[in-house]
Amino acid sequence: MPGGERVVVGALAGAFGVHGEVRLKSFCAEPEAIASYLPLHTPDGRRFDSLRLTGRAPGALVARLGGVDTREEAEALRGTPLLADRDRLPPLPEDEFYHADLIGLSVHDPGGAALGVVRAVLNHGAGDILEVARPGGGTLLLPFTRAVVPVVDVAAGRIVADPPAET
Fold first, then answer.
1. In the predicted model, what is the mean pLDDT of residues 9-18?
2. pLDDT score, position 126
3. In the chain, N or C terminus with fewer CB closer than 10 Å?
4. Which CB contacts under 8 angstroms, 24+ apart, belong to 134-142?
C-alpha cells in the first residue's frame, strides 16, 4: 500500500472451540467494526481477507478467519496483533488520535524542556496514559487529559505536557 502505514486494530487471543474459531480482542471504538477494515495483516506478513464474527466470549469477540480451520491453527495465533491499512480507517474528530500517531512523538514541558518520547499509550480502564521514555533513562507516566497534555501536534511530531507535581 502507499506509505505502507498500518494501525493495530485488534489482537488474537487464542482458540475458541475445536473448529478453528478465534477469540478476538478488538481495539476499535465499536468492537464489531474490525470486520469492516479488511484485509487484516499480522506483523510477520500474513494476510486475512475474510473475517466473520460469530459471537462473543468474555472480553472478546468470536470469529472465523479465512485460512484458519483448526483449533491448533487458531491457538498458534494467540497474541498476534492484527493491523489494518490506515486508509481503511475512518477519519477522527479534531481532538482524537490513533495511538499509533502518538507513539514516537517528542514530549516537552510548557517551557520547551524535553521530557522524553512517547513509548506507548496505556489504558487500564480509567483513561489513556502516555508512557514517556525519559532522555536520561526511566519512564514518565502522564494522564492523557487536556489538563496535562494541552497540545498534541502530530504533524510537527510534538506534544506539550504539563505533568502533575510530584509529591
1. 93
2. 76
3. C
4. 140/107, 140/115, 140/116, 142/107
Tens digits of per-residue pLDDT, 73-119? 999 999 999 999 988 988 888 888 888 889 899 999 999 999 999 99
Measured between alpha carbons, how far is residue 42 from residues 11, 12, 103, 130 in Å? 9, 10, 19, 25
Cβ atoms of 33 and 25 within 8 Å: the answer is: no
Handedness of CA 79, 85, 88, 93 (dihedral sign): positive
pTM equals 0.72
Number of other CB atoms surrounding residue 6 within 10 Å: 20
User: The dihedral of CA 46, 1, 30, 79: what is its sign?
Assistant: positive
Amino acid at 1: M
For domain 2-88, is the CATH number 1.10.1040.10? no
Please give the grid coordinates belonging to residue 103. Answer: 507513539
